[in-house]
Amino acid sequence: MNAKTFGLGLMALSGSLPYGKKLTNEEVQFLWLLLPADVKGTVTDEMWAFGCSQRMMDPDPAKELPLHLQVLSYVFRMRDGQPAFDWGLKADLHHRMALPSCFHPQQQAPAADHQPLLEPAATNPVLAGGFDA
């Protein structure tokens, strides 16, 4: 991703989102400097545009994050409510980008008390191949 695309996306979003603060050129340039180099090298202009589009369509965005991190949350895997750059891009990003006009919600991790729908194979004879011939 290049600095011009990054800046255009942020300026367009900050100017068009309701209740948003319009960012200045200096603020956008500084946010670009803060972005890790590996993120700049990994994210393409198309991925950035996809993230901007998803942010505009999101009915419940993560408003506690800065705008540039909100956009990157649609591209990178998430950890603790933030994009985890070290975890890499979303595994299904290419499928999401194939349908850019649809909003793709964030994947939710199962709750800590989540019970699997099926028993483990060791205790379920159907899954363990328990059919005797």
How would you explain this protein's 3D organization?
This protein has 133 residues and is mainly alpha-helical. The protein has one domain (3-98). It contains 6 helices and 2 strands, in the order αααααββα. The chain has helices at 3-16, 25-34, 37-42, 45-57, 67-72, 93-98; strands at 78-79, 82-83. The protein has a two-stranded antiparallel sheet with strand order 1-2. Helix 1 crosses helix 2 and helix 1 runs parallel beside helix 4 (45-57). The longest helix is centred in the N-terminal third of the chain and has 14 residues, at 3-16. The chain is elongated and about 65 Å long. The termini are far apart.
Secondary structure elements and their pairing?
Elements: H1 3-16, H2 25-34, H3 37-42, H4 45-57, H5 67-72, E1 78-79, E2 82-83, H6 93-98
Antiparallel strand pairs: 1-2
Helix pairs in contact: 1-2, 1-4
Q: CA-to-CA gap between the ends?
A: 60 Å
| Computed Rg | 20 Å
The chain-level mean pLDDT equals 87
Total DSSP E strands: 2
Order of helices and strands: HHHHHEEH
- Shape assignment: elongated
So how many helices?
Answer: 6
What fraction, in percent, of the residue positions are helical? 40-55%
- Major sheet size, sense and barrel closure: 2 strands, antiparallel
| Structure classification | mainly alpha
Number of domains: 1
Strand content: under 5%
Which regions contain 5 or more consecutive residues with pLDDT less than 50? none
- Strand adjacency order, main sheet: 1-2
